[in-house]
Amino acid sequence: MRTEQLEYIAAVTRLGSLRRAADELRLSQPALSETVRNLERELGVDLLERKRTGATMSAAGQELMPRIVDVLEAVDRLRVAAGEQHRISRMVRVGTVNAATVPLLIPVLREFRAAHPVTQVEVVGAQQTEIHRGLAEGGFDLGLVNQLEGDDVPAGFEATELLRGRPVVCVRPDSPLAGRDEVSADDLLTVPLIAMRTGYVMHRYVHRLLAGRAPAFSYSTDGAEMGKLMVAEGLGATVLPDFSVVGDPLERAGTLVCRPLADDSTRVLLMLQRRRAESVPQAARDLHETFVRRAGELGGGPVSGSRPAASSSP
User: Fold this and answer.
1) pTM greater than the 0.90 cutoff
2) How do strand 48-51 and strand 157-165 relate by DSSP bridges?
3) Start-to-end C-alpha separation, the chain
4) Alpha-carbon torsion (52, 43, 157, 301), positive or negative
5) Which residue blocks in the chain are alpha helix, DSSP H?
6) Which end of the chain is less crowded, N or C, counting CB atoms within 10 A of the terminal residue's CB?
7) Whether 245 contacts 251, CB under 8 Å
8) Which pLDDT tens digit goes with each residue over 129-174?
């Protein structure tokens, strides 16, 4: 067994495709495939399930992956101790819904980079179901998802509540709705509405809020960041968690404002999730701790309606 075999299987798992892993590793796909099969024969287990849509970890592979990561990190530590100048950096992959708040994500990444200058962080925007699938299959180390209070956490995941906020209507300062202390569901029917696509928590919330009624005109977009840009350009209003708007660069610049919804007590939670595992890479643990610490600071600071994080796991 060679170290590069373990690195190759880790790359295939992370990227979900033999082709993409071969491109990143600068190998031919047949050579990579043969190397992985040699490792499977040596271990006596099928590490991957090969499908037309890509390669995913098998059940046996998922059980062995933490051990593989342990070996790779031990090799890194050995190389550092031996004075190797070109240490192979590890990558932490974070799946995030776009409403998972720039005011939290950017400071976390900046702080983590300062402490881990050679560890890459890949942030992937995705819907909640895609994030859960990536966590389960080992493609993501951490997942940032929104959920409504009372929603269940999927089995097999650890979940930490980072922020707790409320839905707000996001509009331009010159919008008629900006002059109101609160915005009602009926008010939303009078303006163009920028809605999140099916599969996002805020799509489910707005559908419930309007009780099947249709606004004067509506757009549909894939995530909060595009929704906020569309609002800033005067295309309409959107409904987002307050922690996704307050502190955002557009809000700080005065391009956007948000108003609470009248007669609504709904709470939206920003959750940090990871797959339950006996062994977790140190970099992923450190990034998890940075999220929790930063969220605690935001809970007492600029994020409206938020509170410090509380973990549902040890």
Assistant:
1) no
2) unpaired
3) 35
4) negative
5) 3-15, 18-25, 29-43, 59-81, 102-115, 128-137, 185-188, 201-210, 224-232, 249-252, 282-299
6) C
7) yes
8) 889 888 888 889 999 998 898 888 777 889 999 999 999 999 999 9
